[in-house]
């Protein structure tokens, strides 16, 4: 058997039990957006790390160093947001080729600093090494949260509404715009911006963490097709998603129409939206979204329901069952 047979998540499932079986009381690791390490009787540290490799996660010719710095920290911040926490302390490791222009590195750090400043994150350390070919970026981010407010992937309950906090598909469409070298106009520029400068939903995550009616939560990094599977396996449930309910931006719809792209594939399997995907009891949802609207000036977007595990992940379009051709992102499949 080779790694591509097992897949990214098959691999994690294979080694994780050895390390998670005998964890000390209160410590949780491998399986959620962050590890949880109690720091006082009522508070916990949240820890997450993400690796970005040139030509796998980004193309240096397509993204500015400033945006790359910004995005590297944003994807980690999003994992803290996914648990409802406050990001605080970052560690940055870089593998760089010796011929990298200093002006490029300065701009990369400008991008890191931009998001660090707006999120109140302090860069406290890291490591810097030579890389033979590709640029390698790893950030570890530590946040904190009151233990009682932590939202996990494992808390979804059958019958609950599944909702997200932002548009789906913009980032994936932005990547496609870049790869296809499409002409710059208002819509394509908006989609590229969504791909290069994802806004972590930190405030939204903190707000949702304070709502007892919100149960499971995750950030949308691999596409809802994959991220819902993570909720399903951790909560032992299934899910039903109505495609006509997916929140799609007008720019996204326009570009999909113009170029004949499959909007459903991009919105479910494209990934890197970095909004939050969560569940809440259906009777609580109307009040929840009304309060969210009052706080953030936009509603929560309901996209489906949690079902029993035997139903797996089911899509409908205008209530008719439909099979999608693309699966959420997996590094090895
Ligand atoms: P995310 O997309 O939120 O960063 P993933 O779904 O990719 O998280 O990862 C699932 C879980 O597996 C996370 O808890 C992550 O920390 C853990 N994990 C992934 N790779 C490794 C690894 N090489 N060693 C230990 N834990 C890992
Ligand atoms: Mg995540």
Give an account of the 3D structure.
The model has no long low-confidence stretch (mean pLDDT 96). Helices cover 37% and strands 24% of the residues. The strands form two sheets. A seven-stranded mixed beta sheet has the order 7-9-6-10-8-11-12, sandwiched between helices. It has a five-stranded mixed beta sheet with strand order 1-2-5-3-4, with helices on one face. It has 333 residues and is of the alpha+beta class. The chain is globular, with a radius of gyration of 20 Å. The longest helix has 18 residues, at 3-20. The chain has ten helices and twelve strands. Helix 2 packs parallel to helix 6 (202-209). Adenosine-5'-diphosphate is lined by residues 12, 30-33, 50, 79, 221, 230.
Low-confidence stretches: none
Q: How many distinct beta strands?
A: 12
The helix content, as a percent range, equals: 25-40%
Mass-distribution shape? globular
Strands ordered across the widest β-sheet: 7-9-6-10-8-11-12
Q: Report the end-to-end length measured between terminal Cα atoms.
A: 13 Å
**Average of per-residue pLDDT values:** 96
Question: What is the tally of helical segments?
Answer: 10
Task: Provide a compact summary of the structure.
By secondary structure, the chain is an alpha+beta fold. The protein has helices at about 5-20, 65-80, 100-120, 170-180, 185-195, 200-210, 225-235, 250-260, 265-270, 285-295, and strands at about 35-40, 45-55, 85-95, 120-130, 135-145, 160-165, 215-220, 240, 275-280, 300-305, 315, 320.
Explain the layout of strands and helices.
Elements: H1 3-20, E1 35-38, E2 43-53, H2 65-81, E3 86-96, H3 102-119, E4 122-130, E5 136-146, E6 161-164, H4 170-179, H5 186-196, H6 202-209, E7 214-219, H7 224-235, E8 238-242, H8 250-259, H9 263-269, E9 276-280, H10 285-296, E10 301-307, E11 313-317, E12 320-322
Parallel strand pairs: 3-4, 8-11
Antiparallel strand pairs: 1-2, 2-5, 3-5, 6-9, 6-10, 7-9, 8-10, 11-12
Helix pairs in contact: 2-3, 2-6, 4-5, 5-8
